[in-house]
TrEMBL record:
InterPro entries: IolE/XylAMocC-like, Xyl_isomerase-like_sf, Xyl_isomerase-like_TIM-brl. It comes from Proteiniclasticum sediminis. Residues 19-269 form the Xylose isomerase-like TIM barrel domain. The lineage of its organism: Bacteria, Bacillati, Bacillota, Clostridia, Eubacteriales. PANTHER family: HYDROXYPYRUVATE ISOMERASE, XYLOSE ISOMERASE-LIKE TIM BARREL DOMAIN-CONTAINING PROTEIN. Transmembrane segments: none annotated. This is Fructoselysine 3-epimerase.
Length: 273
């Protein structure tokens, strides 16, 4: 299993620090966060793509995943008017263009909150329509689109492997896949392993961190209550060969370099035990 560094926690540092640290600390790849000041897709398209490519070459550190910012402000394809949805779809197509251009294996999306006054049928219809449009574009690019389930703090649309599995069946294409962030099932008091059994070969990526009861904070492995050693052993039995990014996000934003080192050292140790 390849281990990646997520750049979101480095947003107050130069992006080069993330690539340098991924190399120094023994990560296998970088997952590029698509927000300013580092990897916003329109900025990449306007010229910053070459900046990131130079970092990839300089540190011999591939970008295997591109994760655009789009489930809060100003983009959320689950909320607002049809013109707002169309605008978000256009933005995410640009994101996929940039993910492909970076040499990433996938671009990741996460359906955000659909609103308090929307029926389940309305939300699901909007979701399927949007993901179908994006999946068709992924087919055109021959670039994988990965869908992430979120916590109930972030969404009322896709929160579980059951919902992801349904979506995979309703939007059928080899370029659409799913992933598991271990925090959403932890927050909801649910199991992590059904992501592997219910999604099968569609299960392509992990956000692997630690968690604490009732919190959606992403902790350094070893700082929470998840039995990560045992979880890693169970994942190994499934034959999973996808990627696993240590998604520290912004909880450690003051000292991302220190915690990125500690995180991968802890996780590597657990994988070897």
């Amino acid at each position: 299993m390849k281990i990646g560094l997520f750049t979101s926690g480095y947003q107050r540092n130069p992006l080069e620090h993330a690539f340098e640290d991924a190399k120094r600390f023994g990560y296998d790849y970088v997952e590029l966060w698509g927000g300013r000041p580092h990897g916003f897709a329109p900025d990449l398209k306007a010229g910053d793509l070459d900046v990131v490519k130079r970092l990839i070459q300089r540190y011999e550190m591939p970008v295997r995943g591109y994760t655009p910012e789009h489930n809060a402000y100003p983009y959320n394809f689950m909320l607002g008017s049809e013109s707002m949805r169309v605008d978000c779809v256009s933005y995410l197509k640009t994101c996929m263009d940039m993910g492909k251009a970076l040499g990433a294996e996938f671009t990741m999306i996460s359906p955000a909150h659909g609103g308090y006054y929307t029926t389940h049928e309305e939300m699901w219809g909007r979701l399927v329509r949007t993901v179908q449009e994006l999946a068709d574009y992924a087919d055109h690019l021959q670039h994988t689109l990965i869908v992430e389930a979120l916590t109930p703090f972030e969404t009322n649309v896709i929160k579980s492997p059951q919902e992801l599995s349904r979506l995979m069946k309703e939007v059928e294409t080899p370029y659409l896949a799913a992933m598991c962030d271990v925090v959403p099932p932890s927050v909801q008091g649910e199991s992590i392993m059904p992501y592997f059994s219910l999604l099968g070969e569609k299960m392509r990526h992990l956000h692997l961190v630690d968690a604490r009861p009732g919190e959606d904070t992403h902790y350094v492995p070893g700082d929470g209550i998840l039995p990560l050693k045992e979880l890693l052993a169970e994942i190994k039995t499934t034959g999973y060969e996808g990627t696993a990014t240590i998604e520290l996000v912004t909880n450690y934003i003051q000292e991302p370099r220190l915690h990125a080192r500690r995180a991968v050292e802890n996780l590597r140790r657990l994988m070897e035990e």
